[in-house]
Write a structure and sequence with these properties.
- The protein is an all-beta fold.
- The chain has one domain.
- Helix content is 0%, strand content 13%.
- Strand 1 and strand 2 form a beta hairpin.
Length: 63
């Protein structure tokens, strides 16, 4: 599971050498308890008003 202070998303983890060890990539194509937006920041960019869905602090925990 992927946990942030905003929520939890459940996902299958796959470790690959092409990502930095301090980086987590979570596809946003899934819904339900797999939805990436469950853990993202709800803040808006002050100029464009676009949601800040691209980056947030998370930790990966075993289920």
């Amino acid at each position: 599971r992927v946990v942030s202070r905003r929520g939890v998303a459940h996902a299958v983890v796959r470790c690959v050498a092409s990502l930095r060890p301090d980086t987590v990539f979570l596809p946003f194509h899934f819904g339900g308890d797999q939805a990436a937006n469950l853990v993202t920041n709800p803040e808006l960019d002050p100029i464009s008003k676009m949601p800040e869905f691209k980056a947030c602090a998370v930790r990966v925990e075993p289920i």
